[in-house]
Amino acid sequence: MRIGIMGGTFDPIHYGHLNSAEEIAEVFKMDRVIFIPAFIPPHKKKEKVTDGYHRLMMTMLATLSNPRFTVSTIEIERDGYSYTIDTVNELRNSFNKGSAKNKFYFIVGVDAFKEIFTWKDSVRLLKNCDFIVTTRPGYKVDDLFNVLNDAAAKKYRNVKFKIDRKNPFGKSPRLYIIGSKHFIYPVETTALDISSTDIRRRVKSGMTVKYLLPEFVEEYINKNRLYK
Ligand code: ATP
Ligand code: MG
Q1: What's the pTM?
Q2: C-beta of residue 20 within 8 angstroms of C-beta of residue 47
Q3: Which fold has domain 2-194?
Protein backbone atom coordinates (compact mmCIF):
# COMPACT_ATOMS: atom_id res chain seq x y z
CA MET A 1 0.00 0.00 0.00
CA ARG A 2 1.02 3.57 -0.55
CA ILE A 3 0.19 5.55 2.55
CA GLY A 4 0.21 9.31 3.10
CA ILE A 5 0.67 10.62 6.62
CA MET A 6 -0.91 13.98 7.32
CA GLY A 7 0.17 15.37 10.67
CA GLY A 8 -1.13 18.56 12.19
CA THR A 9 -2.75 20.22 15.12
CA PHE A 10 -6.13 20.30 13.33
CA ASP A 11 -7.48 22.93 15.70
CA PRO A 12 -9.79 22.79 13.76
CA ILE A 13 -9.30 20.76 10.55
CA HIS A 14 -10.39 22.74 7.44
CA TYR A 15 -10.73 22.49 3.66
CA GLY A 16 -7.09 23.57 3.18
CA HIS A 17 -5.93 20.35 4.89
CA LEU A 18 -8.56 18.17 3.22
CA ASN A 19 -8.08 19.49 -0.28
CA SER A 20 -4.31 19.26 -0.23
CA ALA A 21 -4.48 15.67 1.11
CA GLU A 22 -6.96 14.70 -1.61
CA GLU A 23 -4.96 16.23 -4.45
CA ILE A 24 -1.78 14.53 -3.22
CA ALA A 25 -3.50 11.19 -2.80
CA GLU A 26 -4.53 11.43 -6.43
CA VAL A 27 -1.11 12.41 -7.82
CA PHE A 28 0.72 9.75 -5.79
CA LYS A 29 -1.99 7.12 -6.26
CA MET A 30 -2.26 6.60 -2.54
CA ASP A 31 -4.43 3.88 -1.07
CA ARG A 32 -4.79 5.70 2.19
CA VAL A 33 -4.11 9.01 3.88
CA ILE A 34 -3.85 8.85 7.66
CA PHE A 35 -4.64 12.08 9.50
CA ILE A 36 -2.81 12.24 12.81
CA PRO A 37 -3.74 14.99 15.26
CA ALA A 38 -0.73 15.84 17.43
CA PHE A 39 -1.12 15.61 21.21
CA ILE A 40 1.21 18.53 21.94
CA PRO A 41 2.91 19.86 18.84
CA PRO A 42 6.51 20.71 19.90
CA HIS A 43 6.36 24.02 18.05
CA LYS A 44 3.17 25.06 19.83
CA LYS A 45 4.30 24.50 23.43
CA LYS A 46 3.42 28.02 24.50
CA GLU A 47 0.10 28.33 22.72
CA LYS A 48 -3.18 27.05 24.05
CA VAL A 49 -4.29 24.04 22.03
CA THR A 50 -7.82 22.60 22.22
CA ASP A 51 -8.22 19.26 24.01
CA GLY A 52 -7.01 16.36 21.85
CA TYR A 53 -10.35 14.61 22.18
CA HIS A 54 -12.19 17.45 20.43
CA ARG A 55 -9.53 17.74 17.70
CA LEU A 56 -9.75 14.00 17.13
CA MET A 57 -13.56 14.12 16.87
CA MET A 58 -13.44 17.00 14.37
CA THR A 59 -10.84 15.15 12.29
CA MET A 60 -13.04 12.03 12.32
CA LEU A 61 -16.11 13.99 11.22
CA ALA A 62 -14.19 15.77 8.45
CA THR A 63 -12.70 12.61 6.95
CA LEU A 64 -15.70 10.28 7.34
CA SER A 65 -17.03 10.56 3.80
CA ASN A 66 -13.70 9.96 2.03
CA PRO A 67 -13.01 6.24 1.55
CA ARG A 68 -9.24 6.61 1.57
CA PHE A 69 -8.99 9.01 4.50
CA THR A 70 -8.50 7.53 7.97
CA VAL A 71 -7.56 8.93 11.37
CA SER A 72 -4.98 7.63 13.82
CA THR A 73 -4.90 8.26 17.56
CA ILE A 74 -1.26 7.26 18.03
CA GLU A 75 0.00 10.72 18.88
CA ILE A 76 -2.94 11.59 21.10
CA GLU A 77 -2.59 8.28 22.93
CA ARG A 78 1.19 8.55 23.22
CA ASP A 79 0.80 11.68 25.35
CA GLY A 80 3.52 14.29 25.67
CA TYR A 81 5.16 15.96 22.71
CA SER A 82 4.44 14.51 19.29
CA TYR A 83 7.60 13.86 17.33
CA THR A 84 7.30 12.79 13.71
CA ILE A 85 10.19 10.34 13.92
CA ASP A 86 8.39 8.37 16.67
CA THR A 87 5.14 8.41 14.71
CA VAL A 88 6.72 7.21 11.46
CA ASN A 89 8.58 4.42 13.26
CA GLU A 90 5.44 3.30 15.09
CA LEU A 91 3.35 3.30 11.94
CA ARG A 92 5.98 1.37 10.03
CA ASN A 93 6.16 -1.25 12.80
CA SER A 94 2.41 -1.70 12.97
CA PHE A 95 1.79 -1.72 9.19
CA ASN A 96 4.79 -3.69 8.03
CA LYS A 97 4.14 -6.81 10.08
CA GLY A 98 4.40 -10.02 8.08
CA SER A 99 5.15 -9.72 4.39
CA ALA A 100 3.22 -6.51 3.76
CA LYS A 101 5.16 -3.91 1.82
CA ASN A 102 4.00 -0.39 2.52
CA LYS A 103 5.45 2.90 1.42
CA PHE A 104 4.98 5.95 3.60
CA TYR A 105 4.91 9.58 2.52
CA PHE A 106 4.85 12.27 5.15
CA ILE A 107 2.83 15.25 3.90
CA VAL A 108 3.73 18.70 5.17
CA GLY A 109 3.35 22.33 4.09
CA VAL A 110 6.47 24.03 2.76
CA ASP A 111 6.52 26.56 5.61
CA ALA A 112 6.59 23.86 8.27
CA PHE A 113 9.08 21.83 6.25
CA LYS A 114 11.58 24.69 6.07
CA GLU A 115 11.96 24.26 9.85
CA ILE A 116 12.76 20.55 9.49
CA PHE A 117 16.17 20.88 11.19
CA THR A 118 14.46 21.92 14.41
CA TRP A 119 12.57 18.58 14.43
CA LYS A 120 13.74 15.64 16.56
CA ASP A 121 16.27 13.43 14.70
CA SER A 122 15.59 15.34 11.49
CA VAL A 123 18.38 13.82 9.42
CA ARG A 124 17.44 10.29 10.43
CA LEU A 125 13.83 11.11 9.62
CA LEU A 126 14.69 12.48 6.17
CA LYS A 127 16.67 9.34 5.43
CA ASN A 128 13.87 7.16 6.74
CA CYS A 129 10.76 8.18 4.84
CA ASP A 130 9.68 10.16 1.78
CA PHE A 131 8.32 13.65 2.21
CA ILE A 132 5.70 15.42 0.15
CA VAL A 133 6.02 19.15 0.58
CA THR A 134 2.96 21.09 -0.49
CA THR A 135 3.75 24.39 -2.11
CA ARG A 136 1.91 27.39 -3.43
CA PRO A 137 1.83 28.56 -7.02
CA GLY A 138 4.95 30.50 -7.88
CA TYR A 139 7.16 28.40 -5.67
CA LYS A 140 10.58 27.51 -7.10
CA VAL A 141 12.39 24.27 -6.32
CA ASP A 142 15.68 26.18 -6.14
CA ASP A 143 14.34 28.25 -3.24
CA LEU A 144 13.62 25.16 -1.15
CA PHE A 145 16.91 23.61 -2.24
CA ASN A 146 18.86 26.67 -1.06
CA VAL A 147 16.94 27.02 2.20
CA LEU A 148 17.54 23.35 3.04
CA ASN A 149 21.22 23.40 2.17
CA ASP A 150 21.81 26.62 4.12
CA ALA A 151 19.96 25.27 7.17
CA ALA A 152 21.80 21.93 6.97
CA ALA A 153 25.20 23.60 6.61
CA LYS A 154 24.67 25.47 9.89
CA LYS A 155 24.20 22.21 11.83
CA TYR A 156 25.78 19.30 9.98
CA ARG A 157 29.01 18.90 8.07
CA ASN A 158 27.96 16.11 5.75
CA VAL A 159 24.28 16.68 5.01
CA LYS A 160 23.89 17.99 1.48
CA PHE A 161 20.79 18.06 -0.69
CA LYS A 162 20.78 17.34 -4.40
CA ILE A 163 18.15 17.95 -7.07
CA ASP A 164 16.87 14.98 -9.07
CA ARG A 165 15.16 16.16 -12.23
CA LYS A 166 13.70 12.72 -12.99
CA ASN A 167 10.59 12.58 -10.88
CA PRO A 168 8.19 9.70 -11.64
CA PHE A 169 5.29 11.62 -10.05
CA GLY A 170 5.43 14.83 -12.01
CA LYS A 171 7.36 17.49 -13.82
CA SER A 172 8.72 19.22 -10.74
CA PRO A 173 12.18 17.95 -9.65
CA ARG A 174 12.56 16.09 -6.37
CA LEU A 175 15.27 16.54 -3.75
CA TYR A 176 17.29 14.07 -1.70
CA ILE A 177 20.13 13.98 0.79
CA ILE A 178 23.27 12.55 -0.77
CA GLY A 179 23.44 8.91 0.28
CA SER A 180 19.73 8.58 1.10
CA LYS A 181 17.19 6.41 -0.73
CA HIS A 182 14.31 8.67 0.22
CA PHE A 183 13.09 11.74 -1.58
CA ILE A 184 11.44 15.08 -0.92
CA TYR A 185 8.69 15.76 -3.45
CA PRO A 186 7.58 19.37 -3.74
CA VAL A 187 3.99 19.37 -5.03
CA GLU A 188 1.90 22.36 -5.98
CA THR A 189 -1.63 22.04 -4.65
CA THR A 190 -4.56 24.35 -5.25
CA ALA A 191 -4.00 27.21 -2.85
CA LEU A 192 -6.83 27.63 -0.36
CA ASP A 193 -5.93 30.52 1.88
CA ILE A 194 -7.53 29.03 5.00
CA SER A 195 -5.89 28.65 8.41
CA SER A 196 -7.09 27.25 11.72
CA THR A 197 -5.90 30.44 13.40
CA ASP A 198 -8.23 32.50 11.21
CA ILE A 199 -11.16 30.11 11.82
CA ARG A 200 -10.67 30.32 15.60
CA ARG A 201 -10.54 34.10 15.41
CA ARG A 202 -13.71 34.19 13.30
CA VAL A 203 -15.63 31.91 15.66
CA LYS A 204 -14.53 34.00 18.63
CA SER A 205 -15.83 37.16 17.07
CA GLY A 206 -19.05 35.56 15.84
CA MET A 207 -18.16 35.72 12.14
CA THR A 208 -19.17 33.09 9.60
CA VAL A 209 -16.89 30.09 8.91
CA LYS A 210 -19.24 28.45 6.40
CA TYR A 211 -17.40 26.99 3.37
CA LEU A 212 -14.04 27.10 5.16
CA LEU A 213 -14.54 23.71 6.79
CA PRO A 214 -17.03 20.82 6.63
CA GLU A 215 -20.49 21.53 7.98
CA PHE A 216 -20.29 18.76 10.57
CA VAL A 217 -17.12 20.28 11.98
CA GLU A 218 -18.80 23.66 12.20
CA GLU A 219 -21.73 22.05 14.02
CA TYR A 220 -19.35 20.25 16.38
CA ILE A 221 -17.63 23.57 17.18
CA ASN A 222 -20.94 25.27 17.91
CA LYS A 223 -22.33 22.39 19.91
CA ASN A 224 -19.26 22.24 22.15
CA ARG A 225 -18.78 26.01 22.27
CA LEU A 226 -15.17 25.75 21.08
CA TYR A 227 -13.07 28.85 20.40
CA LYS A 228 -15.50 31.17 22.20
P1 ATP B 1 -2.70 27.09 12.71
O2 ATP B 1 -3.24 28.33 12.07
O3 ATP B 1 -3.26 26.83 14.08
O4 ATP B 1 -1.21 26.98 12.66
P5 ATP B 1 -3.02 25.51 10.34
O6 ATP B 1 -4.20 25.95 9.55
O7 ATP B 1 -1.67 25.96 9.88
O8 ATP B 1 -3.26 25.87 11.85
P9 ATP B 1 -2.01 22.94 11.11
O10 ATP B 1 -2.79 21.93 11.86
O11 ATP B 1 -0.97 23.72 11.83
O12 ATP B 1 -3.06 23.94 10.42
O13 ATP B 1 -1.38 22.31 9.79
C14 ATP B 1 -1.20 20.94 9.54
C15 ATP B 1 -0.55 20.77 8.18
O16 ATP B 1 -1.39 21.29 7.14
C17 ATP B 1 0.79 21.53 8.03
O18 ATP B 1 1.67 20.71 7.27
C19 ATP B 1 0.40 22.77 7.26
O20 ATP B 1 1.49 23.27 6.50
C21 ATP B 1 -0.73 22.27 6.37
N22 ATP B 1 -1.71 23.31 6.03
C23 ATP B 1 -2.25 24.22 6.84
N24 ATP B 1 -3.11 25.04 6.20
C25 ATP B 1 -3.12 24.63 4.91
C26 ATP B 1 -3.81 25.09 3.72
N27 ATP B 1 -4.64 26.12 3.74
N28 ATP B 1 -3.57 24.43 2.57
C29 ATP B 1 -2.71 23.38 2.53
N30 ATP B 1 -2.02 22.90 3.60
C31 ATP B 1 -2.22 23.52 4.79
MG1 MG C 1 0.12 26.01 11.14
Answers
A1: 0.95
A2: no
A3: Rossmann fold (3.40.50)
